[in-house]
Amino acid sequence: MTSSGAADTEESITSLKDEALAGLAAASGAEALEQWRVEFLGRKGRLTGVLRNLGSLDESARRSAGAAANRLKGELEAAFDERRTASQRSGTETGPGDSGRSGGRTGAIDVTLPGRRSRTGRLHPSTQMIREMLEAFNEMGFQTVEGNEVELERYNFDMLNLPADHPARDMQDTIWIDRSSRSEGGGVLLRTQTSPMQPRTMEKQDPPVRIVSPGKCFRIEATDATHEWQFHQVEGLAVDEGLSFADLKGTLYEFARRIFGAGRKVRFRCDFFPFVEPGVDMSVDWNGRWVEILGAGMVHPQVLRNVGYDPEKYTGFAFGVGPERVAMLKYGIEDIRHFFSNDLRFLSQF
Ligand code: DAH
């Protein structure tokens, strides 16, 4: 055989190498890789074909071409192993159906496969309800202020016309943090209501006042479908010259209309809270049953005096709404304990 035969062989080794490496780069998925291996490295594969033809070359040509072919074999085997390992590592990204047809790199994402839906979080139903309520009040001119969950006895009780020996304190079984503390503010507790934001706000500013204050409250409760030891309230307070009970009713009717729609029936009844006089509660019709959603009333003159307001000049009304109660009515939720059980089957409905 002539030396041009040797040159031909070396040329075909080089082009085989180019073709093989390009093919390997394009092979995606286990099936395509195996096909490639059979085509180039298999017993009847193309490299074996080249090696077989070496016999027709003269000895020196055979030796150099043989060495080149063996080098190529080693290179292709190494490249194949590397490719296979990479493909196995990214195996989760190559769907079972994409081998050999996407023509992309192994591990490339097959855009024709349906995606996996990612779960998006959302706001807690209580938060959603609170925001909706705040928006209704904000649009009526009430400004949002926030307070602390850990509160002083002074603001949670004393300033609200609930002195230490007042029997109405029994209405709110309190979680104390430090009961013994006899500092200026009295003991330290987890607030049982958002009402402390009334004196806290009035202490800081002169009338007119028009605020709403959302937040979490805590009480020692035997829990049942309508009682939880933690719950939210949205407090409201308006103080100005000449405010009357008509303003209170108008505001709360409008609130109910915005949240429940115009058709829903509401009812006011007399109730007692030490920081208002007269006091009322408001209930909403729920399938023929009245469910109480808030307490309200005209701010007690003593509360105004406690913060240095002149009750002869100023009057006001206050209210405290339970957003969980409102959400239960609005969405037909039967048990208040769902709100704090963190069960996704419940939470993801909102
Ligand atoms: N803080 C009262 C409670 O937790 C609710 C309440 C009643 C708030 C009357 C008020 C109010 O502002 O005027 O039971």
Describe the overall structure.
The chain has eleven helices and ten strands. With 350 residues, it is α+β, with helices and mostly antiparallel strands. It folds into two domains: 87 residues; 223 residues, BirA Bifunctional Protein, domain 2 (2-Layer Sandwich). The chain has a seven-stranded mixed sheet with strand order 1-5-6-10-9-8-7, sandwiched between helices. A three-stranded antiparallel sheet has the order 2-4-3.
- Give the radius of gyration: 39 Å
Number of strands: 10
The CATH topology label of the largest domain is: BirA Bifunctional Protein, domain 2
Neighbour order of strands in the largest sheet? 1-5-6-10-9-8-7
The ordered string of helix (H) and strand (E) elements is HHHHHEEHEEHEEHEEEHEHH
Structural class: alpha+beta
Strand content: 15-25%
Small-molecule components bound? 3,4-dihydroxyphenylalanine
**How many angstroms separate the termini?**
83 Å
